[in-house]
Amino acid sequence: MRYDREGFPIPPEFDLPDSTATAEVLPVSDPEAVRSRKRTGRAGWRKRLVVLAVLLGVVVPGLLGPQLLPTISAAVVNWSLEQAYACQAADNVAGAVDHLSRAISWHGDHPDLLCMRALVRLESRDPQGALEDARQAAVLAPLASQPLRIQAVVLVVLGEADDAVAAADRAAELAGDGAAAAVNHRAYIRGLVARDLDAALADIELVVASDDDAPPAFVDTHGFLLHLVGRHEEAIDQLNHAIAGMRAERQTFARRFGRSPSTAAAVRLREIDQALAVMYHHRSLACGAIGLSGQAEQDQQLAREKGFDPSRGIL
User: Helix, strand, or coil here: 151?
Assistant: First the structure.
């Protein structure tokens, strides 16, 4: 096998004549001979370019693809997650769904990714899509409580009260009775669908009583359930406490990360504002129930400004 001056092999069927021999046989003064040699050279280069294209387009990927694919896949997934966070921070939930869908298509179904997409699908007013994702996540992780907790919220939005309660109950069972977040979630779902309110109130009172510094979300659930059972003044006291706690949490977070370019920080601030929206809505209900119409209207306005929207799962 011979090689040309660029290092590429010259196939036997396209052997070029030796330049010295050519000089001896073909006189340079013959124009036709010069043109013939140029045509032969151009044809040879075209063939070599075809061979190079085949090497780069077929052979190299075939050899290196299996080694490079996991790295490429991980890069695409991570980039897609970053873009999804950025979309959420900008309240572009449709864009977040698209980026998460790309991440899933490259990574394959994964419970965490499916749960993330379920939440943004719900917020983009696609509860059926959210339910499909949450159910698939539960199939992949049958002992995890998060997929069932998401299912419960989606089922509330869809108006499936019995199934919502069943999903919340199962999630609490998987998490264990000592898991305060799961118990709080079960109590709140029952409140949203107005089922077993006395049992729900007993659950959340046990959780709050066991924690001297209960999270604002737990206190909010307590206040909401007190309102639902007709104890409106007590409800307002608890809801005032919850709102004050969440506002303090927001201020602390904003001081530390409010000017951070991190999209994760922006997403967290957005989540806090949505939690405040729900709390203001709850207090507006309790205030309205005892005739404090001015405060109720003010709280309703604040809830809307912060993003309260049951159709998007912010409820």
Answer: helix
pLDDT at 20 over 80: no
**Residue 133's CB: how many other CB atoms inside 10 A?**
30
Locate the DSSP E strands across the chain. 2-3, 9-10
Contact between residue 296 and residue 287 where contact means Cβ atoms under 8 Å apart: yes
Nearest Cα neighbor of 275 from 285, 283, 263 is 283
Give the global pTM: 0.76
**What are the distances in angstroms from CA 244 to CA 96, 204, 224, 227, 268?**
31, 19, 15, 18, 18
Question: What end-to-end distance do the CA atoms of the chain give, in Å?
Answer: 76
Instruction: Report helix angle 60-89 to 263-289, nearest 10.
Output: 40
Other Cβ atoms less than 10 A from the Cβ of 117: the count is: 28
How far is Cα 2 from Cα 224, in angstroms, rounded to an integer? 86
Residue 218's Cβ-count burial label (10 Å; 0-12, 13-18, 19+) is: buried
pLDDT given for residue 2 in this prediction: 43
Distance CA 158, CA 154 (A): 6
What's the pLDDT at 13? 38
d(CA 247, CA 239): 12
Q: 3-state DSSP call for residue 9?
A: strand
**What's residue 43's pLDDT?**
55
Query: Among 234-238, 265-269, 283-287, whose mean pLDDT is lowest?
Result: 265-269
Tokens 């504002």, residue? 273
Closest-CA residue to 195 (of 226, 228, 158, 173): 228
Task: Report yes or no: 311 and 159 within 8 Å, Cβ to Cβ.
Answer: no
Q: Is 7 left (phi over 0), alpha (psi -120 to 50) or beta?
A: left
Instruction: State how far Cα 218 lies from the chain centre.
Output: 25
Whether pLDDT at 310 is above 90 = yes
Give residue-wise pLDDT tens across range 28-54: 344 444 344 444 455 565 656 555 555
